[in-house]
Amino acid sequence: MSEVRPAWMAVPAIMFLLFLLLGGAALANQPTAWQTDLMPPASPVMEEIKGLYDYLTWIAIGIVLFVLALLGYVCYRFSAARNPTPSTTSHNTLLEIVWTAIPVLILATIAIPSLKLLYFMDRTHEADMTLKVVGHQWYWSYEYPDHGDFTFDAFMLYEEDLKEDQPRLLTTDNAVVLPVDTNIRILTTSTDVIHSWALPSLGVKTDSVPGRTNETWVRITKPGTYYGQCSELCGVNHGFMPITVKAVQKAEFTAWVEGAKEEFARADSPEDTETEEENQKLAFSLKEKGGKE
Question: Is the domain 129-266+275-292 a CATH 2.60.40.420 member?
């Protein structure tokens, strides 16, 4: 008669299958329900991050399975029933060298691609354009120094202002428009506290630090709308500081720039310019309306 195994022994296999099946469920540029994998990459940096993530996942799975198998073998082979007289061996030179050398080799195989990725995602030496990002409590300002040096602010849209296809807590009134297939240098700083400009689909996450300008880069490979959020705790309305980026073809970007130069033209007179105090009042209103979401 075959041995009947407990039902709980099937749980690891079921969880592993669910991981494989649901791992590719993320098909949007924003988080989805029951998502277990990273968002689909839309930039070379994110593609490299995804590749390293998958590589490390398989290494981790291999280590877990090896340790689990070794533990099971030890429990079976050296149980009191099968090994009534335990060995008194206290040292094994070869075994100690092996269990020291193998982890070192594993760490080396992890460190080499990790360092390559860190240098790759640091900055681009051949930028086609520059975008300046400035963090405030609690909204973002964007500047296009290579395209007329116009500036605009981006605030989160309230739920009653959202359109049908706009996600809650992720949509801003003004989207950052960028061209695809373009090396874009991103310079980011802050006027008050530390923020972090993060877009998971593009593999971007850089701190915005007061008094300091940090640099990163992105090259968007697919047109579409991408969403992110401030990823550094920056105050009471930290959760209401989204990022919306619209990636378009180069011709469409050029047309948008011409319109944006007029829409966001700077005025010399103070009465025509929205002051920092007015922006702060608008940002603080998120606590009253957005905090109730």
Answer: yes
